[in-house]
Amino acid sequence: MVRVVVPRLTERARSLRAVEIAEHVAVEALPDWNTPRRIRERSQRLLPDPDFLAGLADQLREAVRPALELDHPPPAATHLAALAGQLHAAAEDQPQNCAAPGCGRELQPATTGRPRTYCGAACRQRAHRARTSNSVRIDR
Ligand SMILES: [Zn+2]
Questions:
Q1: Average pLDDT value over all residues in the chain
Q2: 139 alpha carbon to ligand 1 midpoint, in Å?
Q3: For the segment 6-19, what is each residue's pLDDT rounded down to a tens digit?
Q4: For residue 53, which of 75, 96, 86, 10 has the smallest C-alpha distance?
Q5: Which of 27, 35, 40, 65 sits 20 to 30 Å CA-CA off 82?
Q6: Which of 123, 106, 112, 138 has its CA nearest to residue 33?
Q7: Nearest 5°: phi and psi at 42?
Q8: Contact 28, 138 (CB under 8 A)
Q9: How many Å lie between the centroid of ligand 1 and the Cα of residue 46?
Q10: At what angle do helices 75-93 and 50-68 cross, to 10 degrees?
Q11: How far does the centroid of ligand 1 lie from the alpha carbon of residue 36, in Å?
Q12: Residues 48/93, Cβ–Cβ less than 8 Å
């Protein structure tokens, strides 16, 4: 809860203060919280991590391999192997989004080295400032 202390102010100072408070409230209210982009960002963040999915796929593939190596593999083994393939594909297809606050742009996959986290230097810098500043952070 925001506690507003209003000392005795002139009419003019009071209206200036009111505008300031209104702006503060507008920022805190995140007026674009329900735009398609924000909704996509949030739902994207709830998906399992691609590494986790790839790990599950590998485990499943390993688990069914002995059964698949039989001359007549049981249908369940074939189905599970197919499921492992789907999991692996899902892990690879999952687009990654820029992690900077308020961006969420889809990232181009890195051709070499570690996967990208931010879409560019500006977003990397903004995320760093957001992490290190003392001001209130808004998780968009
Ligand atoms: Zn970005």
A1: 81
A2: 15
A3: 566 788 888 888 88
A4: 86
A5: 40
A6: 138
A7: -65, -45
A8: yes
A9: 19
A10: 160
A11: 17
A12: no
CA of 119 to the centre of ligand 1 (A): 4
Q: What are phi and psi of 84, to 5 degrees?
A: -60, -40
> How many angstroms is it from 24 CA to the middle of ligand 1?
24
Identify the segments of the chain with pLDDT beneath 70: 1-2, 4-8, 30-31, 94-95, 110, 115, 134-140
68 Cβ contact partners less than 8 Å away, ≥ 6 residues apart: 77, 78, 81
The tokens of 56 are what? 């599950």
Q: Extract the tokens encoding 20.
A: 């300031």
Give the three-class secondary structure for 97: strand
Pair of tokens at residue 117:
């986290």
Assign 136 to helix, strand or coil: coil
Contact 22, 31 (CB under 8 A): no
Instruction: Output the pLDDT for position 134.
Output: 57
